[in-house]
């Protein structure tokens, strides 16, 4: 039997009100907290040593049989509250909740932290740079693809989308917590790449070189830009190499998350 602090049966409970407020960006910014919903997301949050402040759960929504073990592990360091189904449904962001939501503390890295991380790696750096991505779903997918392709880190240059938006957390399927993520300005990031001698490759339709014909080995940073306009002029001017994805139909470009995935897996193919 799970040991919990108390059972929450009212939508007016102060704990629930505080947690619901975290769906607002300004509250997340002020408190330094955010919400993590879902078994896989919470499992990876623990893998990434994310600090859990509170846990809310509802067994009536569980989809599997491993939830109790995860709850017990979280409850060693944070209070866990069982919720009535109607209460949990109100707290949940999803159409089909799976019975687990946590309040966690935000964790962001600096370029200095990234430098130390790369210094301790035995392989050439492999970074992904997302400039001013605006749609949370795209950012979450880029995180997932970066993790899958074995990137060392993702740099958010001139961040436009809150990294801790619930849609980012969901679309990343928890890879937000296992892949190092740095937020910095474009100028800071460009200076960092030069100082660390990391070659910048820009993914852009404004190129004659197919991404499959480019040499994507060695210290490397793949940069992708906004959904509507692509990379800004600064990034295109500073790139040592520009690569494109062939488009044979009527559309002239791919969704930025899809395009990023293709290029990242070409990097993985060449390095393998």
Give short descriptive properties of this protein.
272 residues; alpha/beta; five-stranded mixed β-sheet; 11 helices; 36% helix
Give a quick precis of the structure.
With 272 residues, this protein is of the alpha/beta class. 36% of the residues lie in helices and 19% in strands.
Task: Map the helices and strands.
Blueprint: E1 6-8, H1 14-20, H2 25-31, E2 33-37, H3 39-47, E3 52-57, H4 67-75, E4 80-83, H5 85-91, E5 100-105, H6 111-119, E6 126-131, H7 136-148, E7 153-157, H8 166-171, E8 181-184, H9 186-195, E9 199-203, E10 220-224, H10 233-238, E11 241-243, H11 256-271
Parallel strand pairs: 1-4, 3-4, 6-7, 6-10, 7-8, 9-10, 9-11
Antiparallel strand pairs: 2-5, 3-5
Helix pairs in contact: 7-11
Written description of the protein model:
The chain has 272 residues and is α/β, with parallel strands linked by helices. Helices cover 36% and strands 19% of the residues. The chain has eleven helices and eleven strands. The strands form two sheets. The chain has a six-stranded parallel beta sheet with strand order 8-7-6-10-9-11, sandwiched between helices. Helix 7 runs parallel beside helix 11 (256-271). The protein is elongated, with a radius of gyration of 20 Å. The N and C termini lie far apart (47 Å). The mean pLDDT is 94.
